[in-house]
Amino acid sequence: MGKLTGAGQYSNDKYLSSFSEGNLCGYGYNLIETMKHNFLKTGPKISEEKMSLFGKAWTYFLEEVSIRGIDMRRVNRGENLKILKPKSD
User: Fold this and answer.
1) Are 31 and 46 in contact (CB under 8 A)?
2) Against a cut of 0.85, is the pTM above it?
3) Cβ(87)–Cβ(5) under 8 Å?
4) DSSP symbols for 12-26
């Protein structure tokens, strides 16, 4: 898996392109589940540093979904969920 190096860097290392469609949707679902509590009043919060890492991963995920033309409704159902976390530098 590639490294998250900053905004706009995904095009240099499209590490999500090797994921199957099901694994990519599962990855996106996992990102949503991890980040959602920082946007809600209840639930455990994650640190700003980790939130930044997951935010970059979310941006790259959205870029890959756009490239492939995947229906985001698949992500919301967590189809073929496989827990895959973003790799830090």
Assistant:
1) no
2) no
3) no
4) G--GGGGS-HHHHHH
Instruction: Give the separation between CA 42 and CA 18, rounded to whole angstroms.
Output: 35
Amino acid letter for position 79: E
Query: What phi and psi values does residue 45 have, to the nearest 5 degrees?
Result: -95, 150
**How far apart are alpha carbons 64 and 26 in whole angstroms?**
13
Which pLDDT tens digit goes with each residue over 12-53? 888 999 998 888 988 898 898 889 888 888 888 889 999 999
Residues 6+ apart with CB under 8 A from 34: 46, 54, 85
Residue 37 · residue 45 · CB < 8 Å:
yes
Amino acid 22 reads G
Residues 6 or more apart from 57 whose CB is under 8 A from it? Answer: 4, 31, 86
